């Protein structure tokens, strides 16, 4: 009888102890998840277009841009023209990447230069440098931390590949002159809508090692082998009197873009035509991931008025 | 010779460039039309005068046909 009572008492004590250990473990896990030292650090996410810290906002009226698929044969990339009160610039021929998880940043305008992983944001900038940055990010990015200078809310705006967003801001400037290249390069941290870091992009300068130069040269030569002025996979004709094909250029093979790589359009040819004294580029754009399947719509395009189809 | 807007061929879309580079606007706009499973695109080359009118660009685009599109995997 006494043994039974003792056994019941021990079992009861073990149950209580187990429950206590469980409660403490859960409380510790919750505290770790909420603490800044845990893996799930959360940052503030400003509203789209808003900035924090020493950054200044750059409204959509402060700059203009034009983003179109590049027409260069064999390329899956973008042409970008942009201007603001400080500068104008146009980059045609496949200058920027479509942005995606693997390529999380591209540049519309900025003065910080280019690294192997994308544009470099430098700040504070010397007096006289263009302080405006406009960067392109994929849809899953809600905000971007610019080093410890502040955070910028990403904003969906017209004129971009569907889903992409811009992060636009004015970087702080020093009152003294100096070399732009010596301005500090900032680490960029992309944040999701809950303020968790998606990726951290530490600034990297272009390496100038012999191995890197040889690799770039090999890549360029490979690209050159993939295009031809004689035939190629794609071609167009026209019966328009006076229209002259001056420089045909087409790919020698059509290769689908890897499923994980970002991109919408693959150009398979770009001919240069002359007509009535004017010059034209003529191109065929294919579905980049599935050439031969219906291509996506061209962003920002509107139908030209005409008779019903 | 300019085309009457009503005579413009159907199915052509344009991507209008904002007022960039007021002194050299020869790159805007870009015209395209769907031909099968491809976009056929015409863009005036920037920096080459004379700057063609939209109707001239549309006339060039409408006259073009895809003569060869060899995907190479069929």
Note the run of SSEs of chain B as H and E.
Answer: EEEHE
What's the helix count of chain A?
Answer: 2
Using the CA coordinates, give the radius of gyration of chain B: 14 Å
Largest sheet of chain B: 3 strands, antiparallel
Largest interface: A-B, 59 and 55 residues
Quaternary structure state of the chains depicted: heterodimer
Average residue pLDDT of chain A: 86
How does this structure look, described?
The complex is a heterodimer of chains A (309) and B (74). Chain A contains 2 helices and 20 strands. By secondary structure, chain A is an alpha+beta fold. A 4-stranded antiparallel sheet of chain A has the order 1-11-8-5, with no helix packed on it. In chain A, strands 10-9-12-13 form a 4-stranded antiparallel sheet, with no helix packed on it. In chain A, strands 2-3-4 form a 3-stranded antiparallel sheet, with no helix packed on it. Chain A is extended and about 110 Å long. Chain B has one helix spanning 54-63, and strands at residues 12-15, 30-35, 38-44, 64-69. Chain B has a 3-stranded antiparallel sheet, with helices on one face. Chain B is globular. The chains are: A alpha+beta (309), B alpha+beta (74). The interface between A and B is large, with 59 and 55 residues. Strand 20 (301-303) of chain A pairs antiparallel with strand 1 (12-15) of chain B, so a sheet runs across the interface.
Topology record:
The complex is a heterodimer of chains A (309) and B (74).
Chain A: H1 2-34, E1 56-57, E2 63-69, E3 78-84, E4 88-96, E5 106-109, E6 114-115, E7 118-119, E8 132-137, E9 143-146, E10 150-153, E11 165-170, E12 188-191, E13 197-201, H2 210-225, E14 227-228, E15 234-238, E16 244-247, E17 250-251, E18 265-275, E19 278-287, E20 301-303
Antiparallel strand pairs in A: 1-11, 2-3, 3-4, 5-8, 6-7, 8-11, 9-10, 9-12, 12-13, 14-17, 16-18, 18-19
Chain B: E1 12-15, E2 30-35, E3 38-44, H1 54-63, E4 64-69
Antiparallel strand pairs in B: 1-2, 2-3
